[in-house]
Design goal:
about 325 residues, 2 domains
């Protein structure tokens, strides 16, 4: 029997890779989209005919009830969010409404309409914030350093609460930074690779960034959506850190990116105070041993391969007039 999956955040980076994966696995894939959304479907255009779109909004309870009723999913992947950490300081209430209460609305819709469906919540390494230990595991205390991180913690715990209160199959994926050529231009990794391509093609002369010394555990989004799927194939729900278990600085990312096009990053990168966070997160480094042991998951794309893949994609885009 063909499985049905409902994905919120379908047109985002993770949603597009997950939808692609599930289509390949012969799922009937449904994607939740706001009817008023002007967001581009560019990331899913290659397989959009294989996805069914249903209207809905994490801010609107009735629309979520209707979406669950219409799609009758076996699995629900909640990837929709206000996902830009920097913007969560200027839009803290909106961030909380979507990233925290939106999770509750979706879980409540499932509880009322399809309580046997399995649920995946996109949690974040930003919940660790001012880290209490390195590396971070499923047992590491949370100490968020942004409204985004705070909202994500609520989403995490409300998923746990519905699991324990209503015996729902709800799992959290605590994903560390994951990137790809489909990453939004507002994220630092894509800002770097786009900047490199612009400089290499004569469209810019410098790249302004914030803290070059902050370190992150960066992996490939295409690898990470496989972990999401694997979580919902387990007999019992649980929470998992998903990471490469390696930390690299923004500076290292720049060095590899510029070297890919034969340039020295020191000649083009400038630090701009506008891009500094009010409360910085200095290092995030995951320990994904549980996911590797229980799910049989492991990342396939290395840090260098990821950076070079992203630079190549942006170079290709500009070379074809993008």
């Amino acid at each position: 029997m063909t499985k049905r999956a409902l994905i919120t955040g379908l047109t985002g980076q993770d949603g597009s890779y997950l939808a692609e994966l599930l289509v390949e696995k012969d799922y009937e894939v449904w994607g939740l989209m706001r009817r008023s959304s002007s967001e581009s479907t560019e990331r899913i255009d290659d397989f959009i005919d294989s996805v069914r779109i249903v209207g809905g909004d994490l801010l609107d309870q009735t629309s979520l009830l209707d979406a669950i009723e219409e799609s009758q999913p076996d699995e629900v992947y909640n990837l929709a969010a206000q996902s830009f950490v920097h913007d969560s300081w200027t839009e803290p209430v909106y961030t909380a409404d979507v990233d925290a209460l939106g999770v509750t609305r979706l879980l409540e819709a499932m509880r009322r309409v399809k309580p046997d469906a399995r649920f995946y919540q996109a949690s974040s390494s930003e919940m660790f914030g001012k880290v209490h230990e390195t590396p971070q595991t499923e047992k590491t205390p949370f100490h968020p350093r942004s409204p985004y991180g705070v909202a994500k913690i609520y989403g995490y715990y409300i998923a746990v609460n519905y699991r324990e209160s209503y015996d729902m199959h709800a799992s959290n994926g605590i994903l560390f930074n994951h990137e790809s050529p489909r990453r939004g231009i507002e994220f630092v990794t894509r800002k770097i690779t786009d900047g490199v391509a612009r400089i290499a093609t004569g469209r810019a002369t410098e790249l302004a960034l914030g803290n070059l010394d902050s370190k992150r555990d960066w992996g490939f989004a295409g690898d990470y959506v496989e972990a999401m799927w694997l979580m919902l194939q387990q007999d019992a729900p649980d929470d998992y850190v998903v990471s490469t278990d390696e930390a690299h600085s923004v500076r290292e990312f720049c060095e590899i990116a510029f070297a890919r096009v034969g340039l020295d990053c020191e000649e083009y990168v400038v630090q701009d105070p506008r891009f500094m966070r009010p409360a910085e997160v200095d290092i995030l480094l995951g320990d994904s041993s549980k996911a590797r042991r229980v799910l049989g998951w492991e990342p396939k794309v290395s840090f260098r391969e990821l950076v070079e893949m992203m630079v190549d994609a942006d170079m290709e885009r500009y070379s074809t007039g993008g």
